[in-house]
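stage 2 :: seqdesign
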């Protein structure tokens, strides 16, 4: 019995010393019940590529891949899981693989904008007093996580709008989103608004409330256009 506390300490230290990507994937899958899977990742840089500072290409077979490293490939999106043993097996074998969230169903969905528009949107939404959930940022796009929605509901929501910001994209059922602290061909993925620490899954706003706020925030550009059109 005297050895139990010692064993617990060793387990705690081992968990705390886990690689960052594995630890983040486990948090998403086991604490928040977000289904995740490893992304395809980047191909190993050659000596010449590393010296020239060129971006690494995608490890998938497509030489013209437009989202290098930041998409599922093998396994496919349907393999996303919340099972701890599966998560550990994946990231033990591929410790640098990006974390891909399978959006929709019971998992979070997201709205994303170009990085410039995303930064402007957050400033505008904060000024409006809009409560936001976690926000994922890459060098090219910012994604606002929202509560799960169906494709049918999204269609009804967009049909009721005269227009929405032109840079807005939707990550719903059957989609995916790369999560921090992944690294992709465009650079490091980070939390612009990190989930609050705690045992419960992060709070997520309703998609309609966020879309409505983004439409309001997009109005009023000096030339009469959209402030979130980039």
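stage 2 :: out
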């Amino acid at each position: 019995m005297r050895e139990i506390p010692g064993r617990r300490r060793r387990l705690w230290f081992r968990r705390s010393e886990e690689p960052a990507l594995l630890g983040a994937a486990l948090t998403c899958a086991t604490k928040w019940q977000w289904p995740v899977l490893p992304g395809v990742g980047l191909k190993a840089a050659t000596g010449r590529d590393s010296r020239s500072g060129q971006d690494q290409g995608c490890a998938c077979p497509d030489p013209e891949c437009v989202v290098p490293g930041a998409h599922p490939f093998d396994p496919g999106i349907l393999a996303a899981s919340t099972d701890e043993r599966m998560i550990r097996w994946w990231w033990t074998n591929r410790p640098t693989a990006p974390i891909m969230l399978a959006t929709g169903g019971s998992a979070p969905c997201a709205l994303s904008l170009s990085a410039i528009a995303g930064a402007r949107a957050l400033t505008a939404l904060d000024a409006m007093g809009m409560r936001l959930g976690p926000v994922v940022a890459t060098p090219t796009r910012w994604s606002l996580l929202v509560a799960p929605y169906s494709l049918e509901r999204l269609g009804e929501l967009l049909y009721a709008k005269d227009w929405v910001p032109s840079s807005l994209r939707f990550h719903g059922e059957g989609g995916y989103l790369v999560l921090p602290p992944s690294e992709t061909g465009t650079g490091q993925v980070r939390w612009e608004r990190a989930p609050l620490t705690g045992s419960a899954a992060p709070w997520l706003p309703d998609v309609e409330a966020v879309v409505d706020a983004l439409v309001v925030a997009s109005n009023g550009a000096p030339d009469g256009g959209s402030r979130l059109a980039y």
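stage 3 :: structure notes
- The chain has seven helices and ten strands.
- Strands lie at 36-38, 99-102, 109-114, 135-137, 141-146, 169-171, 176-179, 183-184, 187-188, 190-193.
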